[in-house]
């Protein structure tokens, strides 16, 4: 069985339903793509929860070292990490009961994405949350 993303309509529906986004690998460097995407999502009204070790705050939000340290379950986990880190992130999502997982452009791990789907997690892979929000749903949520 091979992985396939949800339809554009389902992606837009997902983006309209979620409110809190745990951004795994969110950099505090304003020149990094993760910073730009998270900043844009924040401007759309999403609550950003930075997940990155050794960082205390990004975009005015307290950062956490890993998903297990979050004080609450986010509506979606958005991943800006290299593909080899995805299986461990999927393990955490399954263990914590995360319902939605987004793997950003270039973050492709088909086996882990299929495992997440089989565990009942909605998965979007190799797409940009900001770009899809803008192109599929318009700029306002």
Question: What's this model, at a glance?
Answer:
With 141 residues, this protein is of the alpha/beta class. The strands form two sheets. It has a five-stranded parallel beta sheet, sandwiched between helices. The chain has helices spanning 8-17, 33-43, 86-96, 110-118, 129-137; strands at 20-24, 47-51, 57-58, 61-62, 76-79, 100-103, 122-125.
Largest sheet: 5 strands, parallel
User: Which regions contain 5 or more consecutive residues with pLDDT less than 50?
Assistant: none
According to DSSP, the number of beta strands is: 7
Summing up helix and strand content along with how strands pair, one would put the structural category as alpha/beta
Q: How many angstroms separate the termini?
A: 33 Å
- Helix content class: 25-40%
The topology string of helices and strands comes to HEHEEEEHEHEH
Inertia-based shape: globular
Proportion of β residues?
15-25%
Strand order of the largest sheet: 2-1-5-6-7
Average the pLDDT over all residues and give the rounded result.
96
With helices defined by DSSP (H or I, 4 residues minimum), what is the helix count?
Answer: 5
Rounded to the nearest angstrom, the radius of gyration is 14 Å
Protein described:
This protein has 141 residues and is of the alpha/beta class. 35% of the residues lie in helices and 18% in strands. The chain contains 5 helices and 7 strands, in the order αβαββββαβαβα. It has a 5-stranded parallel sheet, with helices on both faces. Strands 3-4 form a two-stranded antiparallel sheet. α4 links the parallel β6 (100-103) and β7. 35% of the residues are buried.
């Amino acid at each position: 069985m091979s992985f396939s993303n949800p339809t554009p309509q389902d992606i837009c529906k997902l983006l309209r339903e979620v409110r809190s986004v745990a951004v795994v690998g969110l950099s505090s460097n304003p020149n990094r793509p993760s910073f730009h995407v998270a900043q844009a999502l924040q401007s759309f009204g999403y609550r950003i929860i930075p997940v990155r070790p050794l960082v205390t705050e990004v975009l005015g939000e307290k950062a956490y070292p890993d998903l297990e340290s979050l004080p609450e379950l986010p509506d979606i986990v958005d991943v800006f990490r290299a593909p080899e880190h995805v299986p461990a992130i999927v393990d955490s999502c399954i263990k914590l009961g995360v319902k939605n997982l987004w793997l950003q452009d270039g973050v492709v791990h088909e086996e882990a994405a299929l495992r997440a789907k089989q565990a009942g997690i909605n998965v979007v892979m190799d797409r940009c949350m900001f770009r899809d929000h803008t192109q599929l749903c318009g700029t306002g949520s």
